[in-house]
Amino acid sequence: MYQLCNKNIQIKINKTGAELSSIVSLINNKEYLWRGDANFWGGQAPVLFPFVGRLKEDTFIENGKTYHQKQHGFFRRSDAIKLIEATDTKLTFSIQHSAETLAVYPYEFEFKTSYELIENKIKIEHTVINLGDKTMYFSIGEHPAFNCSLRNPNESYENCSLEFEQPETDVTWNISEEGLLDGTTREFLNQTKILDLDKSTFDRDALVFKKLTSNKVTLSNREEGPLITVEFVDFPFLGIWSKPNAPFVCIEPWQGYADSVHSSQKIEEKEAINSLKAGKKHIATYSIEIHS
């Protein structure tokens, strides 16, 4: 376990997956990150790489060869991640290709994740470096889960709302039983700036938004006020998810999303996939701001 703190905030990070495991305000001594109770969902804030969501049949094809990966990619389960830089306010973690990764993902790469504290904000930066001699394909995503109340750790999301930076009109993409986008949508946001959550919000799994114009969303408790704000300028897609009646809400910035049921499974044809030429670098940043 790694730890960072300044005068406003303290965070903890697990070695496995370089995953956030705690966000505590030193102003009010409250925990903002979901505790990872497996009775609802055992995750807390997994980093998603090299895929976001599920692949069709957990499979992709590159240059005629078939590879297999579980939902959200291998990084979140990896113990091969190393701490490569540490200062008083920033930690940087890295993983590079290995025989183990090449068996499931045929690219030579380095993937770095850093956490930096800036006043009451956590800045998270991901860097992908293509170390090979061919174009690599990948997605990056985040999956942080936040408590719905600072006072009552068991309070469900029914007393919460999400406020977008500006009024939004967008559909949500429906998810099949296999965790794939089934190609259908339903109307969800219609010039909506504040989305009140209720017991039916997540009846059909996650909300998947592809065309939001906002770069920020704030989770608020109706009695306690704003809890956290997530800013995601570098991430064009957003997922919102929770388990039914759970005491957390996930706000998920994505570069990419799950396969369609109609996917060819060829990685270069995957919807919303990033491509990176040999020797090039890709950087994506987002932030979590806590309200004390």
Task: Give a short overview.
The protein has a single domain (2-290), classed as Distorted Sandwich (Beta-galactosidase, Chain A, domain 5).
Please characterize this protein's 3D structure.
This protein has a single domain (2-290), classed as Beta-galactosidase, Chain A, domain 5 (Distorted Sandwich), CATH 2.70.98. It contains 1 helix and 22 strands. By secondary structure, the chain is mainly beta. 1% of the residues lie in helices and 48% in strands. It starts with a strand and ends with a strand. The mean pLDDT is 97. The strands form 5 sheets. Strands 7-8-9-10-22-18-17-14-15 form a 9-stranded antiparallel β-sheet, with no helix packed on it. Strands 4, 12, 13, 16, 19 and 20 form a 6-stranded antiparallel β-sheet that branches. Strands 1-2-3 form a 3-stranded antiparallel β-sheet, with no helix packed on it. The chain is globular, with a radius of gyration of 19 Å.
Describe the SSE topology.
Layout: E1 2-5, E2 9-13, E3 20-25, E4 47-48, E5 59-62, E6 65-68, E7 82-86, E8 90-96, H1 99-102, E9 109-118, E10 121-130, E11 136-138, E12 140-142, E13 145-147, E14 160-175, E15 181-196, E16 207-209, E17 216-221, E18 225-231, E19 237-241, E20 248-255, E21 274-276, E22 281-290
CATH third-tier fold name: Beta-galactosidase, Chain A, domain 5
How far is the first residue's CA from the last residue's CA? 25 Å
Can you identify the CATH class?
Answer: Mainly Beta
Strands in their spatial order, largest beta sheet:
7-8-9-10-22-18-17-14-15
Low-confidence stretches: none
Number of helices: 1
Structural class: mainly beta
Radius of gyration: 19 Å
